Amino acid sequence: MPDGALLDTSFLITFADPTRKHHAVARQYFDYFVEQGVPMFLSTIVASEFHLGQPVTDLPLDALIVLPFNLSDAIRSAELDFREHKGVRPMCRGRRSRMISNCSDKPRRTKSRTS
After folding, report:
1. Distance CA 104, CA 12 (A)
2. Is the pLDDT of residue 101 over 90?
3. Which of 58, 43, 45 is nearest to 7 (CA)?
4. What average pLDDT score do residues 54-59 get?
């Protein structure tokens, strides 16, 4: 039996949204972990990311072990600048985006005008 499962944001979004393509699979994993007594860990960072889209209280929190996020964790994570590795900027064409992945350095496609 595994020591536990650290749940990520995409898993939780898929688990919570029955319209997503892999919802049934996520549900099966969740049910299996519960049935087998596999501890499921939820980091407060993932909870925060999930909460951007819907209330984290929509999740079965009684089945999850919430991991703390301390000040030292916050400082360390702030020092990790993933934008450098993704090639994106924090400001996307003059607008802030909730998700860095929504930003792109690729130029926008525009319709060509014929004279």
Report:
1. 25
2. no
3. 43
4. 93
Indicate the DSSP class of residue 100: G
Work out the end-to-end distance of the chain between its first and last CA atoms, rounded to an integer number of angstroms.
Answer: 69
pTM over 0.85: no
Query: Which sign does the torsion angle of CA 51, 84, 6, 30 carry?
Result: positive
Beta-bridge partner residues of 28: none
Task: State which amino acid sits at residue 112.
Answer: S
Q: Are 88 and 103 in contact (CB under 8 A)?
A: yes
* Of 99, 103, 104, the residue nearest 52 (C-alpha): 99
| Total Cβ atoms within 10 A of residue 59 | 19
pLDDT in tens, 70-98: 777 667 766 766 555 555 444 444 444 44
Q: How many residues does the chain have?
A: 115
Task: State whether the Cα torsion 73-83-8-55 is positive or negative.
Answer: positive
Is 14 a residue whose pLDDT tops 50? yes
